[in-house]
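In this notation, each integer encodes one residue's backbone shape. One such record reads:

___
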Amino acid sequence: MKSFPCFSAIIFFIGCFSLHASIITVDDDGPADYQHICFAIDDAMSHDTILVAEGEYIECHYSIDKPLTLLGAGRDHTILSYWDGIISIRSDSVKIDGFTIQGGFMQTYVHHTDIQNCSPIMTNNTFIQRNGWGFVCVFYCNGSASPKLHYNNFNLDYTVFYLHNDSLDIHAEYNWWGTTNEDTIQLVIHDKHDDPSLGEVLYKPFLTQPAAVEGSEIDHLITTFNLYQNYPNPFNTSTTIPYDLSKDGHIRLSIYDQAGNLICRLEDGFKRQGAYTTYWNGTNSNNVPVSSGVYFSRLEIGSQLITKKLIIIK
């Protein structure tokens, strides 16, 4: 019987109140909520976390149409295998972390359907060939799509991007492309349309060696203090706010209105160096929805301060 790794308690802060998102377990060879990932995805609620135990999972199709976090036991431990399978991502606030993804033909659909600015995060994964087959990894990016691919290992002949995404770029920095030769990397990363007006694949800076197995080993690569633009933006119900900390310290992540009034605090406490993500569902400190308009997220640590503009449309 396989055991789950020691996952820390996972709590997502949605809005200005603490919401304990459900944790769903998947193990094909032991006691768990599900034996198949696809069934766990189907039954999960928005912002749930699906913990997948070590092992190889051979399935055909994953369709993610709600905000979810899919966590493997590590890229060397949890393997997703399929010949002609598809990962179809049709929602914002999706994160896939800690898998080896192998198979024949992997396509990731990240496109505008009912949700604009679909920007999933795929990090700490390894994409590999399977027995000489499946040498192409294909990402179809449609509508308002701008996926973020960071700290992945692409051990493939080609990684193909089809960009139909309204001039939005694909953020693929800090990945290992199998080589440090930039000319070779440009051949490995294939922008099918090669039209900057449709967006570009931003692959620099790239890693000069394969990303570490454990996410904690990757944190030391974060050398800048940064608050990223929220996504989607504008938004209606909820939005994702990523940020990086280059050092340990007490942080505050707050929301303000245009007059400088504090709306709520999303984070207020000590955090270690690393990459983080939090959420805001457009409510104030009393959990009352705010009106449409312009707001500002502000991240503080010590004397450092970064602000980003958020827009709510209802």
Remarks:
- Confidence is low (pLDDT under 50) at residues 1-20, 104-117, 214-220.
